[in-house]
Design a protein that fits this description.
mainly alpha
């Protein structure tokens, strides 16, 4: 793929992932997307009536924030790993990459964390202290969404180790197998988010061993992308809830509505559940273990990440300027998303009437537009009036 086409595709891919991140934090039929997922599953699998809270609008939010949205941050890790190792030929080259990442990751990480700490102090949610400032800067205590940037910094520091492991295929896949075995058996790795390492390493692995395949496109690969996303949808049977409902104690699917039945996989999930139930018992226990579930979720999300990449055609429309602002959008989206939810509560918008549900869904779908617009306007203003501040908070992007 020519550099211009590749760069353009990266911009559009990361923009899509940015929108999905906003949608994760914009759900308004529950306090967060995890609670929403629990409510939807209770309604779909156990036929529990949560009047108004689990209708079609709530299912739309759940689909975008959980079924698809959970691939958003993994997608960022995947692309970051790929771009770091793309064209990396020697250990000495890592030093140059580190210099660039110091400006694009470490500086804005500290700046944003200090900024949010000051906001918390001004709002009276924190009392100013050196300890509090240290926690805000080092542990993102006032800016929880920056766990991603923190992990990305740690993974970037580990780049020399990854480079060594990627020197030949046996070492690459052998180290990944060893890491997986340790993970499934519950070995805890300090500081590092276990699944984040998978995504970043798979990006690096793709850059090292499958660059040509990743950067070329064909009709076959577009169909392959659809197949990967479909496979991710079908692997829901291996999640904790899926194992319970399809394998351990199958639910009565006759009580489901047709849409719910199709959403959980219908006959395919039923047949998979029957087949899996015949597996050796220790395999089922392993899948249901905490390490096993990390692996299940990693596989499901990677399938979506690669699927979306391959679905996108080679020659996309040129990315607009507002699409090239993913880092800044990520940094400011959370408070904007929460403001929209507070507005609904302030306006006393309920959940039971169809008009109220429609308004909540509309707010949910409009929030990404508001966030993108706000981020772009701030980019233009700061870039024009205070370029140094813009450089600090955007990481020089």
């Amino acid at each position: 793929m020519e550099k211009t086409y590749f760069s353009n595709k990266v911009y559009i891919y990361t923009f899509i992932m940015s929108i999905l991140v906003v949608l994760i934090h914009s759900v308004n039929f529950a306090d967060d997307n995890t609670i929403l997922l629990t409510m939807i599953q209770s309604a779909d699998y156990n036929n529990i009536d949560l009047s108004g809270l689990t209708g079609i609008p709530a299912h739309v939010e759940n689909f975008l924030s959980n079924a698809v949205g959970q691939a958003a941050v993994p997608g960022f890790f995947l692309v970051s790993g790929y771009l770091f190792f793309r064209g990396l030929k020697d250990l000495k080259d890592i030093g140059n990459k580190w210099k660039k990442r110091f400006m694009s990751l470490v500086i804005p990480y500290g700046a944003w964390n200090i900024f949010y700490y000051i906001i918390y102090v001004l709002l009276g949610k924190e009392r100013f202290s050196l300890t509090g400032l240290h926690r805000a800067v080092a542990e993102y205590s006032c800016n929880p969404v920056f766990w991603y940037v923190f992990q990305l910094i740690l993974l970037t520091v580990l780049a020399p180790l990854f480079f060594i492991l990627l020197r030949n295929r046996i070492l690459t896949f052998g180290s990944m197998l060893l890491y997986t075995l340790l993970e499934v058996n519950g070995v805890d790795f300090p500081l590092i988010n276990e699944d984040a390492l998978y995504y970043f390493f798979f990006g690096a692995l793709t850059a090292r061993w499958f660059k040509e395949s990743f950067e070329t496109q064909s009709t076959g690969k577009m169909f392959c992308g659809l197949g990967l996303i479909t496979a991710s949808w079908l692997t829901q049977v291996f999640t904790t809830v899926g194992m319970q409902m399809f394998v351990m104690a199958p639910v009565d699917f006759r009580k489901m509505g047709i849409l719910q039945y199709l959403y959980v996989g219908g006959e395919i999930s039923k047949m998979m559940g029957v087949l899996i139930s015949r597996w050796p018992k220790h395999w089922l226990v392993l899948i249901l273990s905490s390490g096993g579930q990390v692996l299940v979720n990693v596989i499901r999300r990677l399938l979506i990440c690669y699927g979306i990449w391959f679905i996108l055609p080679l020659r996309l429309p040129t990315a607009k300027d507002f699409m090239k602002n993913s880092f800044f959008l990520y940094a400011i989206h959370y408070p904007i998303a929460r403001i929209g939810i507070y507005m609904l509560e302030y306006m006393n918008v309920g959940y039971h009437r169809k008009e109220e549900q429609a308004l909540r869904l509309l707010m949910y779908l409009v929030t990404p537009v508001i966030c993108v617009s706000a981020a772009y306007m701030m980019k233009k203003m700061l870039g024009r009036k205070t370029p140094f501040i813009w450089k600090i908070f955007s990481g020089g992007r």
